[in-house]
Specification:
elongated; 20% strand; 4-stranded antiparallel sheet; Aldehyde Oxidoreductase, domain 3; TIM Barrel; alpha/beta
Length: 282
């Protein structure tokens, strides 16, 4: 597992501090002997695409360095309901203390991956690529985008400094002049392609004439998207956004756009149902 701009040790530390507080797991410490041990199986109760399995394991390893963990799946795997994901044996107190942050992480990230898979499957064969967006929980950008990739989507820009996207408010500040806004972006010479958001067909010509390298077609119905695709005629890549969901995405993809972006991969993905069941006493 390699996630750029993600510090696993720091993530685990912060999550455990949040959950354990200053007093630790008072329930586990009060009811379970310090040397008690048991085994457990983590499994999924629904069909999922896996993301974050090694991160989940890191919580158990942090609280019990001697824990025995057998990872039965890897990130990116698609598995049916009832699949065992992980088996582990270790200190009982440690396992109970690590259980919730480990499950929370795996449930959320696998939820994103599973949603990405649904969108990727929905456009299969059209030539369109699904993209996620920057609409992520603050502080969770790197892992959310990683989970999106594990599910079969591609990442749009990770940060404001790695992609130049001119949106409606940038144009509005420049007197609603697309050509002037694009020209300023090109003159800045950041070495990045200049993408421009347009929501009307009549904005396409000025954007291209000013040197736009890519267009984001915002909230256009399929009929208008097809018109835009014909007008651009392959001169620059086209991305569609707005009104994208699992019911509409196939029709959008079939218009001939190159990319489709949606926040629903990250913002709209529900956590999946994964549990940790104690298998036996040692």
């Amino acid at each position: 597992m390699k996630i750029d701009n993600f510090d696993l040790d720091d993530f685990v530390t912060r999550a455990l501090e949040e959950d354990l507080g200053t007093g630790g797991d008072v329930t586990g410490n009060s009811t379970i002997d310090a040397d008690a041990r048991f085994a457990a199986v983590m499994d999924t109760r629904e069909a999922i695409s896996v993301a974050g399995i090694e991160i989940a394991a890191a919580f158990f390893r942090r609280l019990d360095p001697d824990v025995e963990i057998d990872l039965l799946v890897k990130d990116g795997d698609r598995v049916p309901a009832g699949t065992d994901l992980m088996r582990l044996k270790g200190n009982a107190r440690a396992m109970l203390a690590a259980e919730r942050p480990a499950l929370n992480t795996l449930q959320i990230l696998s939820g994103i991956a599973t949603m990405a898979t649904k969108f990727a499957d929905a456009v299969e064969g059209t030539g369109a690529t699904m993209l996620d967006t920057r609409k992520t929980i603050p502080g969770m950008r790197a892992v959310s985008k990683y989970a999106s990739r594990m599910g079969g989507a591609s990442n749009h820009r990770m940060r404001l400094d790695d992609g130049l996207l001119i949106k409606d408010n940038h144009i509005a500040v420049n007197g609603s002049d697309i050509a002037r806004t694009v020209a300023r972006a090109k003159a800045a010479d950041h070495g990045l392609e200049v993408q421009v958001e347009v929501d009307r067909i009549d904005q396409i010509g000025p954007a291209l004439a000013a040197g736009a390298d890519r267009l984001l077609l915002d909230n256009m119905p399929p009929s208008v998207l097809r018109e835009a695709v014909a007008l651009v005629a392959g001169r620059v890549p086209l991305e569609a956004s707005g009104g994208v969901n699992l019911d509409t995405v196939r029709a959008i993809a079939e218009t001939g756009v190159d990319y489709i972006s949606t926040s629903k991969i990250t913002h709209g993905a529900p956590a999946v149902d994964i549990g940790l069941d104690y298998a036996m006493a040692e």
